[in-house]
UniProtKB/TrEMBL annotation, chain A:
InterPro entries: Fe2_transport_prot_B_C, FeoB_GTPase, Gate_dom. Signal peptide: none annotated. Keywords: Membrane, Transmembrane, Transmembrane helix. This is Ferrous iron transport protein B. The chain crosses the membrane at residues 64-85, 130-155, 216-233, 240-264, 351-377, 433-455. Pfam families: FeoB_C, Gate. Residues 246-295 form the Ferrous iron transport protein B C-terminal domain. It comes from Paenibacillus lactis.
From TrEMBL, chain B:
The lineage of its organism: Bacteria, Bacillati, Bacillota, Bacilli, Bacillales. This is Small GTP-binding protein. Residues 3-165 form the FeoB-type G domain. It comes from the Bacteria. The keyword Transport does not apply. Gene3D superfamilies: 1.10.287.1770, P-loop containing nucleotide triphosphate hydrolases. NCBIfam families: small_GTP. CDD domains: FeoB. SUPFAM superfamilies: P-loop containing nucleoside triphosphate hydrolases.
Length: 461, 244
């Protein structure tokens, strides 16, 4: 304790009033020395090339071109993802269908009981196969393209462009960076909010991160948009319409992010946005092959593994719930019927709401659970391609409104279990974790309710 | 096999994570924007029968207590005392990078500087004289390009030599104006008596004069902890965050 006392005495002896001067002269000397060293060790042979980044920035962050270029890039990414994913998706699903045929034959050959075939093939295998064939292709395109843009240095320019919008809604400009991370995975984006120093603004970023669709929700959005919104078109136009609808969803998500940030910063999280410096790094030509490989291997496989790990047990659970009967109805159907009236008011149905609820651990499995739910009710169709899939939905009474509201609900509803867990870990607050669940859920319910009621009142469905 | 600890420090977006990945074979997320690494990641790398444990510190512009990132990076260098602090500088923006380098040189003798992004500097027509810089800074300076795996062998060799004590450094220490130097000298003698050789007394003196409350608090914790017989106590809390 001796040392401590002496340190205490020593710090007490330092006059506090000259601190500002000290910092100033320290920083001044540091800068002077750095410049001196640079003058001695660095020679620049080509001044012209140094300013190339600046010239590019004048275009990418210009008031006139900044937003159009940003939207165009986003549009191109979606178009590539959707156009490129269609063919491999249906190839994968027919491949799995082919395997399923053999597996079923094998089960019959050894006279395996029906329930075992049900659990393993119709539950586990089919669920997993669906997740892989629907999710893998778009992810294998989206992540590498996004990573290329990120390594090129475009993300900080997006932050720069969006800065004013975020400031106006009382949030931190860096929130656009954490938002961009959310496109990949909301759970990881919650961690990335650490770059925001002010706790108030960080909380805004955490609470609103969920409004950008993560990889688990892209497939749902893309699939429903292409099946229901772009159904009247064909070929390239169809892809274009699908991409536009998906982009509309993303833009809506951003609008909701800004609105919620604004509302919160005027109420529960009052305060003025803090200043910060945003560094615009030089544009760097990414190592293209390396980036593509990394993004594919790391992100895609990681996401997929997670999907399969969660999807497989969920598939089994759904199958079991659908096949254990109380009275003459299965547990699943009891649950669905219970949810149905409320879901109908939102333009959904009981199955969809059930899928969202069972899908809490991971958004990836919402669609597979929904399909398993539908298929378990008896209309056991062999699903060979995307458009056979549409028939299943239509048979269950789907209209474009059902599809639209499911997309809206998926975009706006509560974060997945992993994200909620991360929010709790980062905030250590039960209250904020609960709010980050409750706010999106309330918004999702409200928006889908209004859309459904309006569409019905206007006689559109 | 001995394990040596190497801390990677540097400005944001100078390629620390890229170097980290290149050496450890791990897959930290990399990207061209500031603030990407928000927590400490660590990974292992074996070279000539030695093991290096790399710590990817968050990128910072300075090591004053401006934000949580800066504190994490600074506390690690001073209180955890890695065998080598590897400074990753951006060859295309050397002036800004050197600013941080000079601050680190005040904190520890065990520093190796690597000039990253040499390939890009070359493309931009920027030439950096590594020898001259090494002579001025008093520590090894190694040009590398982490993303092209260039210069990593030389770097590994130097790391090993420094860890085994075969390299002596004479790091450049900042000189301030006369009045400040006088006060620093006074405090330094006092502090030497209190902390001994455990922590860099001159640097602590400067921080005290700068009125760095947070550092003083951390230092008190450390001193109190060593009284109870454990240096590590308290560190785990400040550095508790890891990736996943």
């Amino acid at each position: 304790m001796e040392q401590l006392k002496r340190l205490e005495a020593l710090t007490g002896s330092i006059p506090a009033d000259q601190v500002d001067d000290v910092r100033e002269s320290i920083v001044g000397e540091l800068f002077k020395k750095s410049r001196e060293l640079c003058a001695e060790a660095v020679t620049v042979t080509d001044r012209e090339r140094l300013y190339r980044s600046e010239r590019l920035d004048r275009i990418f962050t210009s008031k006139l071109w900044g937003f159009p270029i940003m939207l165009a890039m986003l549009g191109v990414i979606f178009y590539l993802t959707i156009a490129g994913a269609n063919v491999p998706s249906s190839m994968l699903s027919s491949f799995f269908g082919w395997i399923e045929g053999y597996l079923t034959a094998a089960f019959e050959a050894v006279h395996a009981p029906d329930w075992l075939h049900g659990i393993l093939i119709l539950g586990l295998f089919r669920g997993t196969a669906w997740v892989i064939s629907v999710m893998l292709p778009p992810m294998a395109i989206f992540f590498p393209v996004f990573a290329l843009l990120e390594n090129y240095g475009y993300l900080p320019r997006v932050a720069f462009n969006l800065d004013r919008l975020f400031k106006k809604s009382g949030a931190h400009g860096k929130q656009s960076l954490t938002m961009a991370m959310g496109f990949g995975c909301n759970a990881a984006a919650i961690m990335s909010t650490r770059i925001i120093e002010s706790p108030r603004e960080r909380m805004l970023a955490i609470l609103t991160n969920n409004f950008v669709p993560c990889n688990g929700r892209w497939p749902t959005l893309i699939l429903l948009a292409s099946l229901f919104m772009a159904a009247g078109f064909s070929g390239g136009v169809q892809t274009l319409v699908t991409a536009s609808v998906v982009m509309g969803m993303v833009l809506l998500g951003i609008v909701v992010t800004l609105t919620v940030s604004w509302t919160l910063s005027k109420t529960a999280l009052k305060g003025v946005p803090s200043h910060y410096t945003l560094e615009l790094p030089p544009y760097r030509k990414p190592k293209i092959l390396n980036t593509i490989l990394r993004a594919t291997l790391d992100k895609t496989i990681y996401v997929l593994r997670r999907a399969v790990i969660v999807a497989a047990p969920a598939g089994v659970l759904t199958w079991i719930l659908a096949n254990i009967y109380i009275g003459d109805t299965s547990i699943l159907l009891h649950f669905v019927q219970f949810l149905d009236p409320f879901a109908k008011a939102l333009g959904l149905d009981g199955f969809i709401l059930m899928a969202f609820i069972i899908g809490l651990p991971a958004n990836e499995i919402v669609l597979p659970i929904l399909l398993m739910g539908y298929l378990a009710t008896g209309s056991l169709t062999e699903v060979e391609n995307m458009f056979a899939l549409k028939q299943i939905f239509v048979d269950q009474g789907w209209t474009w409104l059902t599809a639209l509201n499911m997309m809206l609900f998926s975009l706006l509803h509560y974060p997945c279990g992993t994200t909620l867990f991360n929010i709790w870990k980062e905030t250590k607050s039960f209250k904020w974790t609960f709010l980050s669940f409750a706010i999106p859920t309330a918004i999702a319910i409200l928006v889908t309710f209004i859309v459904a009621q309006a569409a019905r009142a206007l006689g559109w469905v | 096999m001995r394990t040596y600890t190497i801390a990677l420090a540097g400005n944001p977006n100078t390629g620390k994570s890229t170097l980290f990945n290149a050496l450890t074979g791990l897959k930290q997320h990399t990207g061209n924007w500031s603030g990407k690494t928000v927590s400490l990641a660590s990974g292992y790398y074996e070279y000539k029968n030695s093991r290096f444990r790399f710590i990817d510190l968050p990128g910072t512009y300075s090591l004053f207590s401006n934000s949580a990132d800066e504190e994490v990076a600074r506390d690690y260098i001073v209180f955890e005392k890695p065998d080598v602090t590897l400074l990753v500088l951006d060859s295309t923006a050397l002036e800004r990078s050197l600013n941080l380098a000079l601050q680190v040189l005040e904190m520890t003798d065990r520093v190796i500087v690597c000039l990253n992004l040499m390939d890009e500097a070359k493309k931009k027509g920027i030439k950096v004289d590594a020898g001259k810089l090494a002579q001025k800074l008093g520590v090894p300076v190694i040009p590398i390009s982490a993303r092209n795996n260039e210069g990593l062998d030389t770097l590994s060799e130097q790391l090993l030599l420094m860890c085994t004590g075969s390299i002596r450094t004479t790091p450049y220490r900042m000189k301030y104006n006369e009045r400040l130097e006088e006060e620093i000298a006074k405090l330094e003698t006092e502090l030497k008596l209190i902390v001994g050789d455990e922590y860099p007394a001159r640097w602590l003196a400067i921080r005290l004069l700068d009125g760095d409350r947070k550092l003083i608090d951390t230092l008190k914790q450390k001193l109190a902890a060593s009284d109870r017989g454990g240096m590590i106590y308290g560190a785990a809390k400040a550095l508790g965050s890891t990736n996943r």
